[in-house]
Amino acid sequence: MSKAIVETKFNFPGQKSRYKGKVRDVYNIADRYMVMVVSDRISAFDVVLPKGIPFKGQVLNQIASKFLDATKDIIPNWKIATPDPQVTVGLKCEPFRVEMVIRGYLTGSAWREYKAGARELCGVKLPEGMKENQKFPSPIITPTTKADEGHDQNISKEEIISQGLVSREDYEQIEKYTYALFERGTEMAAKKGLILVDTKYEFGKKDGQIYLIDEIHTPDSSRYFYSEGYEERFEKGEPQRQLSKEFVRQWLMDNGFQGKEGQQVPEMTDEIVNSITDRYIELYEHITGDKFVKHETDEKKIEKNVSLFLEH
Q1: CA–CA separation, 100 and 145 (whole Å)
Q2: Residues 224, 228, 233, 239: is their CA dihedral positive or negative?
Q3: Phi, psi dihedrals of residue 60, rounded to the nearest 5°
Q4: What is the pLDDT of residues 109-158, one digit of tens each?
Q5: What DSSP string describes the chain?
Q6: Regions of the chain where pLDDT drops below 50
Q7: Cα angle for residues 101, 102, 108 (degrees, 5° grid)
Q8: Which of 89, 84, 27 is nearest to 57 (CA)?
Q9: Cα–Cα distance for residue pair 212/194, rounded to 1 Å
Q10: Given this model, what pLDDT does residue 149 score?
Q11: Can you give the pLDDT at residue 53?
Q12: Across the strands, what pairs with 100?
């Protein structure tokens, strides 16, 4: 099996601190730049699973890089360069304490709440009589708070503003950006025979300017359906063919794990790990339309590539 990088402890030139997220290790360089190393860790139900997935970090980093480049006419973003297939170097921004989740279809957690009787989500009224995987009349934004640990919480626009998490002026601007980015992502997906179902965006501020930060339109932050057969499956009430990491959640649920107390993560055999790698590569090729080229991971190579970039 190829090696998976599950943790990094680099010491780059000018490094001030290191932050370990669920999947990313983020290095603060002189309070000017961020070096984001996308590890091969995989999380589901807010739990980091015990084994890494070879090439997953490369898949996510390269998809995000492609979509950041393809949307920079809509909003400036934090990316400066990708000195290694698993690394993005970008501007250090002050992140907003909310994530902008935008949904084009009623599915996932929104469907579960709807089915249980909810007709309002994050302050957005939902029409009666909708079915699972049905397209909304127009996309809806259902923000969440950004938790350092544990679960992000749903929150409404008015709560965000009244709690002072984001000013009204800034919120209304990132709302506009969210709709525009989703529209671009939807158009790009359609060209690949895909439907961008829902996704999330994160924004930050630097010198008074709002930037798009983190990853966008990756299978970890987005859900895609295949366009072909969507209508037919919807009419019959059948599950849609998905391109997302939903298959990992499904495998865990089938094996009695949903991140609840007392539950055990099922054994991740080499066969399971390899099958998840294969699915991520399939996701990459469908979403980007490019052939995936495997770059064997190696901490020394990453450190050298990033250090060379920072020294220049």
Answers
A1: 9
A2: negative
A3: -65, -45
A4: 899 999 999 999 999 999 999 999 999 999 999 999 986 665 678 999 99
A5: ------------TTEEEEEE-SSEEEEEETTTEEEEEE-S--EETTEE-SS--TTHHHHHHHHHHHHHHHTTTTS-BSEEEEEETTEEEEE--EE-SEEEEEEEE--HHHHHHHHTT--EETTEE--TT--TTPEEEEEEE--EE--SSS---B--HHHHHHTTSS-HHHHHHHHHHHHHHHHHHHHHHHHTTEEEEEEEEEEEEETTEEEEES--S-TTTEEEEESTTHHHHHHHTPPPPEESTHHHHHHHHHTT-SS-TT--PPP--HHHHHHHHHHHHHHHHHHH-SPP------HHHHHHHHHHHHH-
A6: none
A7: 80
A8: 84
A9: 23
A10: 60
A11: 96
A12: 201
CA separation for the pair 93, 114 (Å, rounded): 36
Distance CA 119, CA 250 (A): 26
d(CA 286, CA 68): 17
pLDDT of residue 296: 86
Tokens 């008015």 found at: 158
Token output for 1: 């099996």
